[in-house]
Amino acid sequence: MAERLFPGGTSTVVLCSGNPSQAGAVQLGQALATKMSGVLLLTENSQHIGAETLQALSDMTVPQVAPTGTIQPFQPQPGKPTVYIVGDDSAISVKIQDRLTQMGYQVTRISGSAHEIRTQILNIVAPAIPQGLDASSFPSSWTMNEGASNHESFFPVSSTAPAWMKQGVSWNFAEQAAVPLNASFPDLANLGPRNAPVKLTQYLGNALGVTAVNGVIYAESDDYHLYALNAQTGALIWQVGPLNNSLMGDPIVSGNVVYVTTGDTGFSFSQVLKYQLCGGTALLVRGLLYSSLYAFNATTGIMLWRQDFRGNAMPTPILYNNTVYEPTGGGNLWALNAQSGALVWKTALGGFDSMSSPNLYVNPSTKQAPIILGTSDANHVVAVNAVTGAIEWVQPTTLNIFNTGMGDNSPAVDQANGVVIKDSVVNFDMANKTTDLAVYAMNADTGNILWSTDLGRGSAPPAYKSGMALIQNGVVYVGSPVTSMLYALDEFTGKILWTFSFANSGPAGAGRGNAVLAYGVLWIAAGPTIYAVNPTNGQELGTYTPGGRFGIVNPVIVGGTMYLGNSYDWIQAIPLSKIYPGVNLS
Amino acid sequence: MAERLFPGGTSTVVLCSGNPSQAGAVQLGQALATKMSGVLLLTENSQHIGAETLQALSDMTVPQVAPTGTIQPFQPQPGKPTVYIVGDDSAISVKIQDRLTQMGYQVTRISGSAHEIRTQILNIVAPAIPQGLDASSFPSSWTMNEGASNHESFFPVSSTAPAWMKQGVSWNFAEQAAVPLNASFPDLANLGPRNAPVKLTQYLGNALGVTAVNGVIYAESDDYHLYALNAQTGALIWQVGPLNNSLMGDPIVSGNVVYVTTGDTGFSFSQVLKYQLCGGTALLVRGLLYSSLYAFNATTGIMLWRQDFRGNAMPTPILYNNTVYEPTGGGNLWALNAQSGALVWKTALGGFDSMSSPNLYVNPSTKQAPIILGTSDANHVVAVNAVTGAIEWVQPTTLNIFNTGMGDNSPAVDQANGVVIKDSVVNFDMANKTTDLAVYAMNADTGNILWSTDLGRGSAPPAYKSGMALIQNGVVYVGSPVTSMLYALDEFTGKILWTFSFANSGPAGAGRGNAVLAYGVLWIAAGPTIYAVNPTNGQELGTYTPGGRFGIVNPVIVGGTMYLGNSYDWIQAIPLSKIYPGVNLS
C-alpha cells in the first residue's frame, strides 16, 4: 500500500525485517519513517527482500516532472529513495543490502544491540535536551530580535567550557521543506531573475535568524514550523507545526517559554483599491492568512497559549518586564502578559508594521523604556511607552522614504548613548526601478534625527529591502542590498569609514542581514557566502560558502561556532575557523 | 519518544501489541498512524498496556491553548486522542480496552483474521479504485469548470446502475486540515464578524467544487492537497501534497490524467504602491507564492509534469482539443499541450485573472471556439481564439464594475443559443461599503451585451464576491451574496422571474455557488445549508444542514447522490432524499 500513501514517491524508505522477533525494531523504524516523512517496508525474511516489497520500493522512486533545476518547497527531489536498514545481518542479510546498493540505492544500516539500535534512532528522531555543564556557557534567555539592543549576537564561552563549544562544531539540519543546498532558483524562465530568488527565499527557509539558549538552537521557518535542535550535534529535540502561517523571526526564549509569531506578506485586492482611491492615505492591513503569537514550553515544545491578531505578525516580539510586545500588519502594537497571553493594552501605530521587529531603550534616569519600531505606511519610526501604551514620539524622518521603508527594517539601539539606528530604502524611482538606501541616527528619548547618510543608489532589491545595523564601539555596521555593499559609519557623525563589496550578490542584491563582531572580526552572511572582515578597515579576512543562500539572517556566534538559518530551509553550525582560519578564539 | 515527535499531542493513537507475533499488525498499524498523522504505541503484553505506553498515551492529549471556539487549520482539537486497537482480545485484551474507555478515550478495535485486519485498514488507508460496472454510469471525463458550459453538473444514471448509485450514498471525508463540522469561526473577537469567516473559508476547504469521473471523486483543497476518493464509500484512493500553493478549482480529468492548478490571492506591497502612483492604470500581478499547473495519473496519483507561472493560477483550467488553457494572476492565458505541458502559446489579457475559470463557445458554423474569461483589473470579459491565441473580442461591460469584478466570476455559456452569462459586483460605495450585483448576457461571437440586470444592493461581501450562473431551459439561475438571494432570470430578456432568500447567510453573505437542476428540482448550497427549490416559482421544497459552511461550491449530482466540498475542508456525499424527501429519482 506504500504507493497509495506516497503516489509521488518518497525520499526515505525504512526497511525492517518481517520476522516476528523484530517487532521492536519495527516500532523504532516507524518512528524513523514518520520523522523522515517516509515509508516503512518489511522484508520477506532475512535472505529475501520479497517481490512485493521490491515492487513497493521501486514505486517509491520520485519521478522527474519538471525541468532540471526548478526546485520548490515540499517537492521531493527526483530519484531513488535513501534506504535505512534497521537490524543486523541476521535480521536483514548483507546479501539484501548489497543487492540494493547494486540497484543504485543509497543504503544506511542501523544495527547493533536492541539498545544500540534504539539509541541511534532516538538520536535521529528525538534526542535528549543537552543537560548540565555543556550548556552553561550559552545565553540563558533571548528577549529580543538578534539577542541584544545593539544587534550583537556574540556569546563568548568561559575557559572551562567543553572543547566542542570553544573550538566550534559543524552540522547541517534540514527543516521540513528543505531544498538541496546546491539547488538553483525555481523556474528562472517563467519568473525572471528578480522574481525567482524571491520565491525561493521568501516562502521557504529562515527569514531572520536563530536563537541560542541553554545549549538549544531554536529556529523559525517559513514552512510553518518551529524547531529546537541540540547545539552540539544538530539533532532534533522537538519540532512543532504546521502552525497557522509562516514564522519569520527569532524565537524569544525566557523562563522555559518560547514565543514565536506567524504572518505573511500579502495584501487583499480591496486594500489595493482602497489605497489607490484614497490617494495613498488609507490605512493598510498587511497579511491575508492567520497570524498569532504562540507560547511553547521550551523543553518539550508543548503549546501553552496562543493570541490571534488581525494583520500579519511577522516581526520578532520583544519581552520586557513580564510583557510580550508584538506590532502587526493590522497597525497595532499589542502588549500581552508573558505568562497568560492576556491583553494588557493595544495601541494604534498610525501605520502597519511589516517586518520591523521592536527594540527598546531604557532611559537610565527616568527608567522609562519606549518600545521602538518602524511602520511601512506611513513610513514612520514610532516609540511607545512600554507601561502605558502611550505614543512617546513619532519620527517621519526625511529623504523621501518609499517602498517597504521603515516598516521592513528593525531598529538597533545603543543603550549607553541613547542612539537609535535605522535604515530604509528611499528615493525610489519607479521608471527605472532604482533606489537609495539611507541610514538614520535618532535620539532615543525624542526621536530627533542626529544625522542621516545616503549610502548610494542601485537597483531596487525585490522583497526584504533593507539591511540591518550593528552598533559596536562607536561604529555602525550596515549592509545595503541596493549596492550589495557593507558599510562602516561613525555612530555620532554618520561619516562613512569604509566599504566592502559582496561578491556574487545575485539579481536580488545582498547585504540584508547584519554583521556580528566577535574575536575582533566582523562576520556577515550575504548572498551565498559568509565573510570575515577586518572591522577597522573593511579588508576581507576569509570567506566560506556553505551552500544555500542568505537573506536577512543574522549569524549567532557562541564560542567557536556560528549558528544560522538559510533561505533554503536549513539550519547550519559552522566553526569560525572554517570561515577564517586565522581567527584567534582565545 | 512519541511526545518528542508530537509535542502538541495528536488526534490519533494506534495501539498494537508488543508481542513479536504481531509484527504484521504493527506494519498495518504504522500505515494507519501515518495516514492519520498519528502515533503508533505498543502494549507491554496482551494484559498490560505498560506504564511507559500509558504515559506516552497521556502525553498525546492535545492541550487547550486558545479560547474555546477559535478554530484554525492544522491545529488539532483539544482533548484526548482517539485510540485504534489493532488485533483481537488475545493480542490486546478487553481489559485494556475497557480501562482505556473508563479513562475517557474513544476506542475503536480493528480485529479479525490477519486478512480481515489488513482489509479493514486498507479500506481506511488506501482502498482500491472502483472497477467496472459500478462506475460506468459516471461521467468519463471532466473538461471544464463545473463539468459543462452551462454549469450544469447533473449526471443521471441508467436504470441498470447499482442501487447505491440510484438511491444515493452518505459519507463525510475529512481532508488534511479539516476542522470539525460543528466548529465556529476563528477568533471573532480579534478578526471581527466579516473577517473571521473569510479566514476560515478562504484558507481552508474546497473553494469551488469537486469532480466526479469513473466512480472517483476528485477534490482540491486550499490545504495544498489533491484527493481521489471512492464515490461509493468516501474512502481515500490516493492523495498528493503538499503541492506548492492552494488548490481552488475543479480538477480536470481526461484520458486518465488529472489537471489541477495552484495559486493564492495576495498582492505585494510594490504592487499596491505602483497601482496607487499610476492612478489605477498599472497592470497588477495577483499571487505571491508559487503557482503551477500539475498533471497527475488519475489512477495512481503519480505526478506526470508541472508547468510554473508568474502570478496565481487559481482558476480551473479548461481542456479542449488536446490543449489545456489556464489564465493567471500574471495577466496571461497559457495554452499547454495536454500530454507534455509544453507551451503552445501565451496571450496577454490586458488584465489579471483572479478566479474566473475559462469557458468556451464552439460556433456551430465556423467551428471557432473562443476561450472566454474575465479579468479583475481591467474589469473586462475577454474571448481568445483557442487555436491561435489571438484576442477575438473584449467587452468592458457597463454599470461601473468594481472590486473583484469580472475576474472573480466564471462565465456560463449556452452553446445552443450562443449566449454568455456573467455577473459582477458593481457600483461599490466605499463610504458605506455597499455594492450591487449585476448579471450580463453577451453574444458569444462578438461579446456584444444582450441585456444586463441589476440584482440589487447590499453590504459588499468580503472575498469571493460573486455568484455563478446556471443556464437551463431558457432560465438563468444565479445567487447574489450581496443580497443573499437566489434569482431566476429570463435568459433572453434578463427579466427577474422569481427570487428566493437564503436563511442564516451570515455576515459574509451567501449565494456564491451555483445551482444544479436535477429531477425537476433546483439544488443549491449557500451558507450552512443545502436547499431544494422549485425551479418554476422559487418555492422551498426542502433543506439540509450537513455541518460546515459553503462558499462558491457547486454541488455535483450523480444519480441519487450530491457530492460537494465545503469550506471546512471536508468532502461530503449526501443522498438527495435527505435534502428533499419528496424527490422523484426515477
Automatic annotation (TrEMBL), chains A, B:
Gene3D superfamilies cross-referenced by the UniProt entry: 2.40.128.630, YVTN repeat-like/Quinoprotein amine dehydrogenase
Coiled-coil portions: none
Protein name as annotated: Outer membrane protein assembly factor BamB, contains PQQ-like beta-propeller repeat
Positions of the Pyrrolo-quinoline quinone repeat domain: 209-267, 292-419, 439-541
TM ranges: none
InterPro entries tied to this protein: PQQ_b-propeller_rpt, PQQ_rpt_dom, Quinoprotein_ADH-like_sf, WD40/YVTN_repeat-like_dom_sf
